[in-house]
Amino acid sequence: MDTNVIIGIVAVVAIAIVLIAWGVWNDRSRKKALARAEAEAKAKADARIAAEQAQRESQSAAAQSAAESTSERTDAGEAPGSATAGGVAADKTAQEAPAKAEEPAPAAPESAPAASEPAPSPAPKPADKPESAGSRIQRLRAKLAKSTNPFGKALFNILTKDNLSEADWEDVEDTLLLADVGAEASEQLVEELRKDARITGKADAAEVRAGLKEKLLDLVGRDTDRRLNVNKPGANKPGVIIMVGVNGTGKTTTAGKLARLFVSEDKKVVMGAADTFRAAAADQLETWGAKVNVPVVRSDKDGADPASVAFEASARAKEDNADVLIIDTAGRLQNKANLMDELGKIRRVTEKNLPVDEVLLVLDATTGQNGMTQAKVFAEAIGITGVVLSKLDGSAKGGIVISVQKELGVPVKLVGLGEGPDDLAPFDPEGFVDGILA
């Protein structure tokens, strides 16, 4: 064999060995760095929890000591808050005027409190009373029906024509595609509508509506289990929900609205502000929590490790015996691998304290098929269990409900139809279909 060929083969083998060795070393280094980061996050969280516990115990001991001191003075015959100078004054009066000893002393004005009596603390601000889930569904159903919805109306207007032509059926399919129903689902629906005698014959508006409603309900999934996992029998307590999604979809707002929904069901909720990259995110979450008396665990500085906040929040929820923990995470682009890896870290660190029951992907319904691309990447990175569609305001993009479920195999569990604090409700398939056909 030619010497140059042998040298070339040896060189290729040597390069391959070097590359393999470098890859193994790099993988081990990355795992060691990740392990160190998780250990540091756990240590910081443990230290903070211990400090807070010590502070609460100190405050409790001080309050108990003050209460015991007041009780002892009362048992000894002193009025709570009275000073010993009162007794000296009484003795002096008795020495200077014994003849007046039997006269009653003038009563102290009722409006003058004892000098040492603490000022009354202001009454706590009453919490908002969130709207119940049942009421929300009815209200949002009516809201969707009143909206200008070209998706359902366009379909209905085409299908109520007599003796539909090929051009009409093409218009039906185009309408479905523009509504982001998806190519496969659109083709399936058109084929089923073509076989329905109520639609292909002499069109009767009531029969067309009934037929179209049935077909849409089948696509949306009328019997799909859309309950949140924390609401199912035998669910973990506390149940943990992680909110994920790209920037601008309304994750933090949705987390706050979801907390209100749980409070309306008399559940004890804790929220974790693990969005440490956006300065106002924790403040925003605290504002939502303050309205319904839900505590928020947050970092004391911007840019902190989000996994550390998640770990601390899970420890707090466990300690408080809460029903639900909601963890808000930072918005991230689905094509940024390091940010997507961070979601996995948040989940792993949280599960050192509590199992994660639910990962909800918040999608902006108006983004259409771009939202589908986002959904697929998030599903691969952290494993989503349900979808929340924000801004489902009856626009032409309502078909995203069908396509996102078909592509991901997970249900749409919650929808938002407005900016109000109670404009988030469990997704109701029949209400949705009735709304877009109204």
Automatic annotation (TrEMBL):
Membrane topology summary: Peripheral membrane protein
Bilayer-spanning residue ranges: 6-25
One of the GO BP terms on file: SRP-dependent cotranslational protein targeting to membrane
Record's keyword annotation contains DNA-binding: no
Main location per the UniProt record: membrane
UniProt keyword annotations, A-Z: Cell membrane, Cytoplasm, GTP-binding, Hydrolase, Membrane, Nucleotide-binding, Receptor, Transmembrane, Transmembrane helix
Record field: catalytic activity: GTP + H2O = GDP + phosphate + H(+)
PROSITE patterns the UniProt entry points to: SRP54
Pfam families, sorted: SRP54, SRP54_N
This enzyme's EC code(s): 3.6.5.4
Residues that bind GTP: 245-252, 328-332, 390-393
Localization: Cell membrane; Cytoplasm
Known partners and oligomeric status: Part of the signal recognition particle protein translocation system, which is composed of SRP and FtsY.
Membership in a protein family: Belongs to the GTP-binding SRP family. FtsY subfamily.
Function as written in the Swiss-Prot or TrEMBL entry: Involved in targeting and insertion of nascent membrane proteins into the cytoplasmic membrane. Acts as a receptor for the complex formed by the signal recognition particle (SRP) and the ribosome-nascent chain (RNC).
Name the record gives this protein: Signal recognition particle receptor FtsY
Organism: Bifidobacterium goeldii
